[in-house]
Amino acid sequence: MKEEKEKKEEKEVVLSPKQQKKLEKEQKRNLERYGITPDEMKGKDVVTNAEAKKGFPSLKRCFKYFKYYKGLVACFILTVVCFTAINLFAPIFMQNIIDSLTLSQNDEAIKYTIYFLLVSIATVGLGYLWEFFAVLTFQKVVIRFRMDLIDAVSRTKAEKFDTVNSGTIISRVNNDAREVTNLIDTVSNGGSAIIMGLGFLAYLFFINVYLALFVTVGFLLILLTSQIYQKYNYKMQKKSRVINDKRVGQTSEIARGIRDIKSLNIRENVLKKFYIGLRHQYRWAIDDSTRGNFLWRLLRIAETIVRVGSIFLGIYLLSIGNVTLGGLLLTIMYFERIQQAVWWIQNLQKSIRTASVSAERICEILDDKDYPKETFGTKTIKNPKGEIEFKNVHFGYNKEKPIFEDLSLKIEPNTSVAFVGKSGQGKSTLLSLIPKLYELQGGKILIDGVDITKLSENGLRDLVTVVPQTPYIFNCSIKENLKYVKEDLTDEEMFDVCKKAQIHDFIMEKEKQYDSLVGENGVILSGGQKQRLAIARALLKNSKIILLDEATSALDNENQSKIQNVIEDLTKDHTVIIVAHRLSTVVNCNKIYMLEGGEIVGSGTHNELMQGCKPYQDLYKIEKKSAQIAEAEATTEEQI
């Protein structure tokens, strides 16, 4: 049934040749003027009724978050209803005041003035409660929204982040969640204004039917013509989101990559690209302002014409005795209530469509279609040994160009194993497959005989720890970075792992020691210090399987030698897999696999490979020659 429904929806949005031509023209304009590609707009430039309604199910789904706070929502709705109901009496009291004064009935005028004062005081009090419950409810919903979004992001498959811009994620979590919750505020304000406007319009029929009909017909015509503006606004809002995502992403990249920008001396090129992005945003703002504001002003002129026309009609009706002076003055004074009701109807349409765009973008993250989520089994391995087996593994980032085809190997528990080879042979990819950061396209990976796809998320990732070449260090203190791994971390445990990782002495030399802040991605640390801190985190996690992806590449020879001793120590109780370019770092491993063209062309100890594997011999000779050249250059520099 679900598939049939989806197919039906797909048929509904099939474009006619005329619409297709319009779409292509719009896509070309988007690219040239705003820098938006068709993929970024996802083919949604032509706004049909069916397309506009497409976001409503997503919006309805997002509104379910308010169910978690039924008590607050009930209090919020109650205050809005009371506020609106009491305000409906204000124009009635005002008319009675005017008519009483006209007839010199001062006592009646004073009575209705007191009523009007009480209504005004009640309005202020209820307005305060309205705002209080609104803020309380919306903030709680936004928090829950953003937590679910971040949770969904964290469960999204790793390959999605190979292509998605970080600005898209940031914008959706921060801006789109707020847009959806703001809609409720707009609905409450707009609903109140609309009810009061309709209440006054109904009362206007009591004052004079001709005056009421004139105002009603006038504003209905305005509402119908306002659909042109709403359609234009919806289309521009969608473009705005795409442009904003790209700007946020660019800003984020500049902030994160500022040191590389400086060291590569590409500041002018980066600024030029950023300026082009700002120009796209500028063009969008100009187009939205000139066209959107023009349509908006036309609507305002139409409203003024209706208002002036009602005054002229009221004067005529007063002259022939069909309306009282109080009724006419009330119409002039409270005409704005009807005008506001029409304005809020237009604003609600705009807000609903804007929020529906946000809801679509939110649900894209929450759902599996655009942001596919990782799937896990339910099994855990008690008392793991750390045996790993690749059975006929088939994988490629591009399915048409696989990296591995029918790859099979077995890693014994409590051993140190290395994967070596030239760049681009799939060494790091192999490590990414073990903790299931990427899905296999064929074959199996087994840990202690259990298929990793059958293991639960904790069951798998508690077993495996990856230390990458460029580890991410959180923007907090050294101690807090370590406490991400173990919340109840003791000082003794912290000192122990940092000593083993050869970073304790460096930390103790700092002014605040373990409470020292490391900056975004550990910017105040050297490459080697970041690697050692990452190794300390891995030691603290104490997983049965430890994967080191060039994790010692930034270390000097002395520290690398010390870390190698730690690694050798780990193999007593852990399975350690190393990816390295420098063969000198893996010569003592129990087994070394030589990769070439996605295949294993040799395996064994260092000595065995030196005797029977030519690609390994060649690689070793090249490295040895490079080391000799570097040593000769260093000696020459010392002599100079």
Structural notes for this entry:
It is a single chain. The chain has helices at 2-12, 17-34, 38-41, 49-54, 56-63, 70-87, 89-102, 106-154, 166-207, 209-256, 258-263, 267-319, 325-366, 427-433, 457-461, 478-483, 491-500, 504-509, 527-541, 557-570, 606-612, 614-639, and strands at 388-395, 404-411, 416-420, 442-447, 450-451, 464-467, 545-549, 575-579, 591-596, 599-604. It is of the alpha/beta class. The protein has two domains: 47-366, ABC transporter transmembrane region fold, CATH 1.20.1560.10; 388-613, Rossmann fold (3-Layer(aba) Sandwich). Strands 6-7-8-3-9-10 form a six-stranded mixed beta sheet, with helices on both faces. Strands 2-1-4-5 form a four-stranded antiparallel beta sheet, with no helix packed on it. Helix 7 (89-102) runs antiparallel to helix 8 (106-154) and helix 10 (209-256) runs antiparallel to helix 12 (267-319).
Quaternary state of the chains: single chain
C-alpha termini separation: 81 Å
Low-confidence stretches: 1-12, 43-52
**Structural class, judged by helices and strands?**
alpha/beta
Helix share of residues? Answer: 55-70%
Q: State the total count of DSSP E strands.
A: 10
Into how many domains do the coordinates divide? 2
- What CATH calls the topology of the largest domain is ABC transporter transmembrane region fold
Number of helices: 22
Based on the structure given, which CATH architecture of the largest domain is correct?
Answer: Up-down Bundle
Main pleated sheet = 6 strands, mixed
CATH class of the largest domain: Mainly Alpha
Identify the strand order in the major beta sheet: 6-7-8-3-9-10
Average pLDDT metric:
79
Tell me the fraction of residues in β-strands, as a range. Answer: 5-15%
